[in-house]
Amino acid sequence: MKCTKSMRGARIRLATVLVALSLGACGYNSVIQADEEVKAAWGEVQNQYQRRLDLIPNLVATVKGAADFESETLKEVTEARASAMQTRLDPSAIDDPAKLREIEQSQQRVSLALGRFFAGYTEAYPQLQSVAAFRDLQAQLEGTENRIAVARGRFIESVGRYNRIVLEFPTSIGASLRGKEVRPSFEASPGAEDAPKVQF
Amino acid sequence: MLLASVALALEIPELRGRVMDRADLLPPDRERMLEGRLARFEQEKGTQVVVHTTPSLEGLDVETYSIRVAEAWRIGRKKLDDGVILTIAPNERKVRIEVGYGLEGAIPDALASRIIQEEILPSFRTGRFADGIERGVDSILRLAAGEQLPAPARRQPRTDRGSDPLFLLVYGGLFLFMLMMRGLGLGRGRRRYRGYGYGSRGGFGGFGGGFGGGGFSRGGGGFSGGGGRFGGGGASGSW
Fold first, then answer.
1. What is the pTM of this model?
2. Do residues B225 and B66 make contact, with C-beta atoms less than 8 angstroms apart?
3. More confident residue, B191 or B34
4. Is A47 on the interface with B (CB under 8 A)?
5. Which is more confident, A4 or B235?
6. Which of A30, A139, A193 shows the shortest C-beta gap to B235?
7. Which residues pair with B211 in a beta bridge?
8. Which of A86, A200, B182, B232 has the most CB atoms less than 10 A away?
9. Sheet strand arrangement including B19-21
């Protein structure tokens, strides 16, 4: 049978669509979207970590304004913050498991230091309870801890979804075509649970 | 907190109205008045505020419980994220104000905390739950009204179907069927293809609502969440 030009053109169009369709089913696009979601989730985690670090100087100033000394627990908060500031928050950290772990640990140290401070401040600073600015800061820091917890949880889930696309057939095909590999995540382990929530 | 595994275990109550008094703290007339008040507020300002009393936090802390429910109910307008959920758990003696992303300016954590401490808990401590809830709602509405947000538009039906697997299955199957039927005529098919994957469906539909999907907020009574998102802002208290 003579192969007319329009038939050949039509076959090429058909083949193109079928290839595109298969790629779609093989995760070619969904892996990119999942990757973008991981980056967005990480951005949010970084935002909240930074927000917490930014609040701490206010806390220290308020406490020292009310009582002219620094308790051990307050000093630890300052040191934990300084240490966390050195571990630069970085969009590319999600590509590097060691860097991710470093960030997680330094931020965890801040959580624990804040938790200990708020659990025991009434002993060293009984007058603080009646200082409105202090109560407001405490509320803000509790709020930030919660936001961090939510952001971390969403980040972990987004990495989980992304990794499933990368690892499972058939989407693993598209993923490897895009050069996408498994990503490291935070550990949702008991040690990583945020500091004890202090309620009034 | 192992948020992922907990999400599977928690059964989210179906959203039926702006006042979900599952712990039965409000007498019927006050519940009706409150519901009316919140409905009028939504009509005037567009912002959705929901009161949720629950007999149990299902073993979770109030922050985790509250955000799980918020993610499922999606209170607040899509993209504006102007929802607030006041959660009261009388058996665990916990209360929380969950503030959507869009209201974090008008209701910062410090003010949410003050509302709880100064308006809500004093009444709760003497067992006057309805009083405490009403005073809390008063303050929340006052603050929410102060936020500069667009006036309510006519409410669109939720068309966010990007994360619905059944829809994709049907859609995909239909597309293949059409492809076969039309043989070589591919003009329409090519346009449809862009809708096949997740790409064009306002992608983030699946991101925040992964647990509840669309089902929960389509409950009866005509009230449903507007698709608002929450980031964990707000404050908690206990008595």
1. 0.75
2. no
3. B34
4. no
5. B235
6. A139
7. none
8. B232
9. B19-21, B48-53, B83-89, B94-100, B230-238
